[in-house]
Amino acid sequence: MSASLLAVLLLATGGEAAERVDASTLTGRTLCGYQGWFRCPDDPAGRGWRHWSRDRDRLSPRSLTVEMWPETGEYPVTYPAPGFEHPNGEPARLFSCADESAVDLHFQWMREHGLDGVFAQRFLVELNDPSQDLVLKHVRTAAERHGRIYAVCYDLTGAPPGEIYDRLTADWRRQVNVEGLTADRQYLKHRGRPVVFLWGLYPERFDAALTHRLLDFFQEDGPYAATVVGGVQWQWRTVEDPGWAAAFRRLDVISPWNVGNMSVDAEGVRWAATGSWKQDLEAATAAGADFLPVIYPGFSWTNLKGPAAAADALPRRGGAVFRRQFEDAAALGLTGAYVAMFDEVDEATAIFKTSPDPPTAAPFLPADGPPDRYLKLTAEGARLLRRTDRPPGE
């Protein structure tokens, strides 16, 4: 039987559905954080150079806020980046997540490499920005088209504490009642409920009572009930405040933010710190929660924060930093992870395709290998956690 005929028969008999990631559980899933926050002048959002530059009206080496340059050759729509050229003299270009085609390409890469899907960031402080709804719409469409799973991650950073509860719960009600978000077949469920990620549950940002109110809302039976993943500080187990200690242990899934958390070996080499994971897993299990480790490929934010921030960098070292975290998670019997992040070139944590030959006008980190190296490494890590060596499509 020819390959083309087999493909036709598979589609005719539901083979397409077999390629879809099962959205009924978080167990065995490795999801990437998806910022979706990049904008360009003349895109549908009209937000200027958002997240490429600290000056929305101008992109320059001094205003630049990213460490890595995306590989843009496959994007159907790109925008010229004035003043930036690749080493071969080719004018550099950038993409915008306000374009459906850009988000679709990202999900195409996920499907091609066997990645499960994303936690789509939704920034509470910017819910009045229409382009947030636009990007979420693109995510929904692309997840359906490519059979990937997704869930909303509310990022609480910068939101006034007194407004968090009302803003968040009103938006979730709208997503459920008006947008029908949780009815999507690719919207992630876990423990029988839709998943919602609350990122930024940090004691220094607001009091524990607010977190308890949010948990009361989501954990009450009814149309807005959800399984709550909590993005917490890595010291969550040892907080002394009894209200916060109780709040952390009410979460359904505990996911301590680990980006920038490093250890140093006997030779003085930096690695992502994973030494707390065993106790984190034990404490989460004792509380009746699942544990979702955060795994990241490396870290740098010199263009974002300034030259002094170079001391904070964690070099990727050809994927060794990334691989070791997956190996440590697998050794604990964990079956899934949260990869930070799919697209965050701001802090050099992106695993999507980045340029091996970035523009020369500013200091960029190269791709550390072929453009798709970290897509492949993420897929390999996910298979390791699932205890399978099968690549996508086999």
Automatic annotation (TrEMBL):
It comes from Alienimonas californiensis. Residues 1-17 form the signal peptide. It comes from the Bacteria. This is Xylosidase/arabinosidase. Keywords: Signal. The keyword Signal applies. The keyword Signal applies.
